[in-house]
Amino acid sequence: MKHRNGLIILFIIMATFGCKPDPLEYARPDNLAGTIYQQLESMGTFNYYLQALDKTPYKEPLVKGGSWTVFAPTDDAFEAYMTEAGISNFEAISQDKIEDIVEYSIVIDGWNTTTLTYFPARFYLGQSFRRRTQYKTPNRVFDMDTLQHIMDWDKLEPGKYIVDASLGRFKTTNYFIESYMEINGVEKSDYDYMFEGETFNDGDMKVFGSNVSQQNVVAENGIIYALDKVFEPKRNMYDNLSSPEYGDKYSMFRKMLERFATLRLMGDQVNEETGETETIYQFRFSTGIENDYLPFNPFDENYATNIDGTLAQGWGLLAPTNDALNEYLSGNSILGEFYSSYDDMPLEVLGKFISPFFFNNYYDICPSSFGQSYDTSLGLVDFKAEDIVDKKFCSNGFFVGVNTVYTNNSFGTIMGPLLLDPNYSMMLQAVQDLRIDTALQSKAVRFSILGIRNDQFENIADPNSATRRITVLTDLESYDPTDVSVIYMKVEGDPNNAFNRTYPDPDASSPNAADVAYVRKTIADIVLNHIIDEDVDFNANTYYQARSGEFVYTSNGNLAQGGGDLEIAESAQVEKVQTTDNGNFYEMSDAINVPMNFTYGTLVDNAASFSSFVEVLETSDALITIIGSSDKLINFLNLQRTFTLFAPNNTAVAQAISDGVIVEPSTVNGLDELEKAIAKRDLLNFAKKHFIQQALPTNGKVSGTFPSMYFSKIVDFAEVYDQFSVVNTTSSISITNEETGESVTTGGMLNILSKRVVIHEINNYIK
């Protein structure tokens, strides 16, 4: 055991002291590049930059190791910088500026001109044009006396607030390399336009508006790029609005943006310089899923996408001057009709007004995109070179000052009056709930809107009931025309008074969600009866189908009637017409009422002509009882669609009985069970044959071939309906069975409007 222990000790001694490597064999090669700091020293043209490094904590890591990319200004660059800034010598540059310049010149990890264009974790050549530097904007103090227009200002105590101006982000440096520009369609002329006085030639690499005179200088711990300019950290686009070089030129647009801003409490933080604990806030803008007033935050260094697109993308922002904004509002603009100041505009209106100035990509407002510049909402903006008064590539995108105001489809189209006039806030909310607001902004289609003001939702026929009428309570103390989140609606005329009450309950501690949804659905259904997808001629004395599927009759140059109005011989009158880019908005004296009755009730009301056809429907078991109402539904009609009933009058039904097509309905119950079943089937088919699957008033517009509700065969499990050719004029409609060639022409009463069904009288039955 003693011998074994001795041998072990001997081996340890030999391993430790007896096997040293040859120092020359493992010595550092003479031709190995030095660290970044050493390389800069050996290159001989970076003395000022080295002195700057010596004054910061970054000298040591650049001397010793790590992995870095350095965008280093040459001595000539420093000389030019000092001359331009009026600085007599290097020692006169403040310590704060030295630290800013150094931090803004250093990027973590070593990147060559190929890997600089990789999008991190994807490794796609030409995707990236940015890297985050070591510079983070220091905290600043905001004085609430100068920000009384920001959101929730009244919830903050007056005074000064310490704000994290970086939002926790590092500023990026921006570079332009040919592979990136080719992939993204950024022309060399685009670069020359963004950085006036600079020219991008083949093989160039640029950092902002500087030329990279030496690329890919390899050091032991990273890569060096030599710049011919010195850069202090760039302003973000929001801060650039108040750049001293512009004076007060963009103060109105800045204030507009600030109306969407708020101070958000972030908590306490120890100040490393003073050792004191400070309460810190962040300056936030209303963007994104939470609140999409603004397409993006011009104060934020990050590009907002589901993934971090900051290194690959940069925003574009057009900023109108004060003169342009004043001239637009005081000129012949639709906004000027409703507002004398931008400060008076609700945030929703203001947000839509400024949306044409926001672009997803900086190159969307470069020369290669002129004439096809689409804003973040994909609206085409008429942006031209002659509009430009200022340009600046900022830390988070491209800023361009313009001497004009660009408008979008929100206000110039038929949506304008809804968005701008608070008297139509309920109609606007319904349009937005229905998600048809984007469609109504299309200039490819013509529209007509019969405007229904908030105070006109009074005693209106409920589109989904045979008896109910509704009234919106605008006289409540809680009523606010600018806030339609909760609307109180009184219901009357419900069968047996079962549901006659106010929805939601005004006395409840909080509104019932189901009641709120019911109110909004009812109002939306009413609003659909006031929107027509074509131009309306009030002199034509004809019928137009609204988006509800119901029809509106216009006459005498200024009158409009729905089916419910025609029943009681009342009408709404046009009070004012607003002409827009895609149709007319008519301010009406009253709401347009849909028919109160369903088809059965309408036929009963006209029993002198249709009592026999009513008996056909009743005997064929084609009806569904509506509880509490004498009206009934027809069970083979899906009233999500619209139909035409060519209703055979009593003479026509008598002829069908005489011809043996159907039996006398009153005799059916006396038949045996088989005969009764056959008789009811024939009666039902007779009824179905007279319903055409298309709404056809006599307006002379819609002709063609349409199916009835009758089918005699099934192919591949699908009903094959009889087809009818229709010729529609302004005085009559004729229909022809395409299989038999038999024709019938309307005669007697025309255009009797019931819910979802237009009824015409015919003197003969359809064969």
From TrEMBL:
Name the source's superkingdom: Bacteria
- Return any one Pfam family short name: Fasciclin
Family annotation (Gene3D superfamilies): FAS1 domain
Domain FAS1, first and last residues per copy = 33-231, 597-766
Q: Sorted alphabetically, which SUPFAM superfamilies does this protein's record hold?
A: FAS1 domain
Against PANTHER family, the record matches this protein to: FI19380P1 (PTHR10900:SF77), PERIOSTIN-RELATED (PTHR10900)
The protein's name: Fasciclin domain-containing protein
